[in-house]
C-alpha cells in the first residue's frame, strides 16, 4: 500500500455539526464512516470518536477530542479551494464566513481577480480563489 496523506480535523464536540455543514457546501460529498462515543466514554456520549468524509472527492478525517486542549485551529494551515465561477466563490464565502471571521475580504488582491480568506464558525481557515 502506498503512503497516503489525509487532512485530520480535531474538534471539541462539534465534529458532526461541522461535517454536516461542509457536506452541504460541496458537491461529491459523503460520510464514509462515523463512530460515536457511547455512555462509557471517554468522550461525551454521542460525540464523534472518528469519522471519514469527503468534499469534492477529497478525503478528510475528524474527531471530537475527549480531552480539552489549550489550542484550536489556526490560519497558519488552511483549506484552499479553487472555485469554478463567481457564483461558487460568492456562495462559499458567504456561507463559510457566516458566524466566523474574515481574514481577507473577497476581492481583487493583485494575485487573483477574486480571492477571500475566512475562518468558519468552527475555527477552520479557508482560502477561496476564483480559478
UniProtKB/TrEMBL annotation:
Molecular function (Gene Ontology), one example: methyltransferase activity
Domain PhnB-like, residue spans: 3-128
**Where does the record locate the signal sequence feature?**
none
InterPro entries named among the record's database cross-references: 3_dmu_93_MTrfase, Glyas_Bleomycin-R_OHBP_Dase, PhnB-like
Record keywords, A-Z = Methyltransferase, Transferase, Ubiquinone
Q: Which Gene3D superfamilies match?
A: 3.30.720.100, 3.30.720.110
GO biological process: any one? methylation
Instruction: Cite the PANTHER family for this sequence.
Output: PHNB-LIKE DOMAIN-CONTAINING PROTEIN, PROTEIN YJDN-RELATED
The protein here is known as Putative 3-demethylubiquinone-9 3-methyltransferase (Glyoxalase superfamily)
Q: Which organism is it from?
A: Actinophytocola algeriensis
Amino acid at each position: 500500500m502506498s503512503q497516503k496523506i489525509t487532512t485530520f480535523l480535531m474538534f471539541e464536540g462539534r465534529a458532526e455539526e461541522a461535517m454536516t455543514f461542509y457536506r452541504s457546501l460541496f458537491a461529491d460529498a459523503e460520510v464514509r464512516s462515523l463512530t460515536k462515543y457511547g455512555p462509557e466514554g471517554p468522550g461525551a456520549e454521542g460525540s464523534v470518536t472518528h469519522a471519514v468524509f469527503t468534499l469534492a472527492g477529497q478525503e478528510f478525517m475528524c474527531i471530537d477530542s475527549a480531552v480539552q486542549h489549550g489550542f484550536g485551529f489556526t490560519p497558519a494551515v488552511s483549506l484552499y479551494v479553487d472555485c469554478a465561477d463567481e457564483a461558487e466563490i460568492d456562495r462559499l464565502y458567504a456561507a463559510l464566513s457566516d458566524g466566523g471571521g474574515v481574514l481577507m475580504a473577497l476581492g481583487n488582491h493583485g494575485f487573483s481577480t477574486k480571492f477571500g480568506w475566512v475562518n468558519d464558525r468552527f475555527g477552520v481557515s479557508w482560502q477561496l480563489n476564483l480559478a
